[in-house]
Amino acid sequence: MARTDPARAVTLTDVARLAGVSVATASKALNGRDQVKDSTRQRVVEAAERLSFSPNALARGLLAGRTGTVGLLTSDLEGRFVIPILMGAEDAFGAGQVSVFLCDARGDAIREQYHLRALLGRRVDGLIIVGRQTDPRPSLGPDIPVPVVYAYAPSDHPDDRSLTPDNTGAGRMAVEHLVACGRTRIAHITGEHAYAAARDRAAGVRDALTAAGLELVGDVMYSEWSERWGRDATAMLLEQHPEIDAILCGSDQIARGALDMAHALGRSVPDDVAVMGFDNWEVLTTNSRPELTSIDANLQQLGRTAAQWVFAALDGKDIGTGTQFVDGRLVIRGSTVARR
Amino acid sequence: MARTDPARAVTLTDVARLAGVSVATASKALNGRDQVKDSTRQRVVEAAERLSFSPNALARGLLAGRTGTVGLLTSDLEGRFVIPILMGAEDAFGAGQVSVFLCDARGDAIREQYHLRALLGRRVDGLIIVGRQTDPRPSLGPDIPVPVVYAYAPSDHPDDRSLTPDNTGAGRMAVEHLVACGRTRIAHITGEHAYAAARDRAAGVRDALTAAGLELVGDVMYSEWSERWGRDATAMLLEQHPEIDAILCGSDQIARGALDMAHALGRSVPDDVAVMGFDNWEVLTTNSRPELTSIDANLQQLGRTAAQWVFAALDGKDIGTGTQFVDGRLVIRGSTVARR
DNA sequence: CTGTTAGCGCTTTCAT
DNA sequence: ATGAAAGCGCTAACAG
Predict the structure, then answer these.
(1) Residue A323 lies in a domain
(2) Residue in A95, A148, A226 closest to B114 by CB
(3) B8, exposed or middle or buried, with CB in 10 Å at 0-12, 13-18, 19+?
């Protein structure tokens, strides 16, 4: 049962006493220091096990100046981005080596400040700040006494270190895939123009089309990040430009709507028209009919790199400044390539 | 920029020196103890602010025996359940008062053990264990020295304290809604029979049907938790039982598939047939056409209660044992009720 | 190889 | 009202 321990937690002193040595020796024995006789170490280890001794990380941290903890401060309410990033960070840190405080600021600057203070008070060794869009976010400033890496949303200050998906590259990658599939009349439906993600992907789309000697069919269609918009835009598109053979959508949600409407209007996917999205949100991409080709932002990789940077900075290495872009990964499914 | 502090962090000693008092007095002043002259307190507070002093929570925790941290140990890879639970917990704890370590065991018992040891070593005040299904999970056993609450997945040991969605009640609630909408020929498509969530919801469905003097149309259709199954099952259903006027689906994903196929077969939703799901996963429910009625499991509430229990246990209160069920909440949308 | 000592930053008696 | 001192659990220097 979940009981509040009435007895004091077992300490190194208890172990030392049981093993019949001093705490110092016990400490050395358990930490693999080499000035300990094998038989002594043996005794200490056994004593520790018998008492199920678990060293107090607070005491250790207090002394070492390092706590082995990292703060992940997010505003991503759904956890769509932060969970893969957390997993990547855990990978990089090694499970159990480093523990991660996850704080959700819910897009509220005040709450963010609270959490920030708390994390610094707990002497985290580093911070990873996860935004919910790829638009630059306000910097925490230069006075944070630990390494900070901004993930997903870059910092708006050039001296900070940020890591964000390469949406322009992803846009290019998408078009290159469609072109490789033989598509030449490509339209682009996307989300809100206010989002850098939408604009950047669109820019990449244009680049790649130009490079392929093609032109976008119609204008980039900006509106909301929703299935509804995907449906509505697709209806308009197929009406005005019946010749299109590919609809590139700015998100998987939009793509789901496009797929839906294409079917409703009697177009076969991918035979008549290819459809693809961005984000590779599995619940959407692998459940549609056909399954949806998408660009995965490699967030787990992003999280891993962010964590490695924090570590590197801790070790005194220079991790530089500015924003680094993480490549996306094309995930091909049935909505752009006919089933074999 | 994110720099590793070259200078030592500012300590209470620094503050005391600047204020011209002893550390003891500084401590009292900052912690609102009442044996301090107002003018002295003033000076100390100012000094602390000037130095942007942030008390070392490790040192404090070492002394107090409480750390103000809680471990959230999950195996919910997508974060679908754990994020609302985390938010609920943060609500209950108060942002900044308590910090939450989030660890993802990824369904791996070894990794779970690693994380558990790490968390206990960091002297968390309590643990919330979040499973990814509502089936009972192995207990961590009686020897955890801090309060443990199992959330979402209950523990398989009766002496543990668990909190899980009331799926039976949710099944009942769903049927009651459909009946209230005038539906009488109701079918039930759901996920894998191996999942307690599927079986429990189905049991509730049967209860409520019986109570209403109705019978399920056909058998409960168990298979996978996917849109594909929703589509396939719906096709079979409409073929074999064209008279049905409601399809209750075991998840929103299945419901999306059902919606899709109902349309494809020329049935109007909700006029000819009502469709509803469970989970209220917004990306699915609010983007479909029509939007999907669903039962929300109130996970944020669940997280809040779990956190409150941990706290209560810490304060020495008896939080009892066994599993408590959290009521779901009906969210009515257009798939069961025609738009006004 | 082992033990003694000091001290990480803080709170809390207990004197003054 | 203030300060000196002890100690939370641990590790690192230094002595022996």
Answers:
(1) yes
(2) A95
(3) exposed
**Domain contains B339:** no
Q: Is residue A112 part of a domain?
A: yes
Of A232, A210, A212, which is closest to residue A221 (Cα–Cα)? A232
pLDDT tens string, chain A, 340 residues long: the values are 333 344 578 999 999 999 999 999 999 999 998 888 999 999 999 999 999 999 999 999 999 989 999 999 998 877 788 888 888 888 888 767 899 999 999 989 999 999 999 999 999 999 999 999 999 999 999 999 999 999 999 999 999 999 999 999 999 999 999 999 999 999 999 999 999 999 999 999 999 999 999 999 999 999 999 999 999 999 999 999 999 999 999 999 999 999 999 999 999 999 999 999 999 999 999 999 999 999 999 999 999 999 999 989 988 899 999 999 999 999 999 999 986 5
Task: Report the distance separating Cα B232 and Cα B237, nearest Å.
Answer: 9
Look at B95 and A102 and tell me if their CB atoms are within 8 Å: no
User: Does residue A173 share a domain with residue A157?
Assistant: no
Closest among B69, B68, B133 to B102, alpha carbons compared: B69
| Partner A, chain B 258-277, Cβ-Cβ below 8 Å | 260
Say whether both A173 and A142 belong to one domain: no
Q: Is A218 in contact with A240 (CB distance < 8 Å)?
A: yes
Q: Which residues of A touch B101 (CB under 8 A)?
A: 69, 99-102
| Phi, psi dihedrals of residue B33, rounded to the nearest 5° | -65, 150
User: Contacts of strand C, CB cut-off 7 Å?
Assistant: A 20-25, 28, 35-41, 59, 62-63, 65; B 8-9, 11-13, 23-24, 27-28, 30-31, 33, 53, 55-56, 59-60, 62-64
Boundaries of domain holding B225: 167-296
Q: Which residue is nearest to nucleotide D3 (CA to C1')?
A: B22
Report if residue B47 sits inside a domain: yes
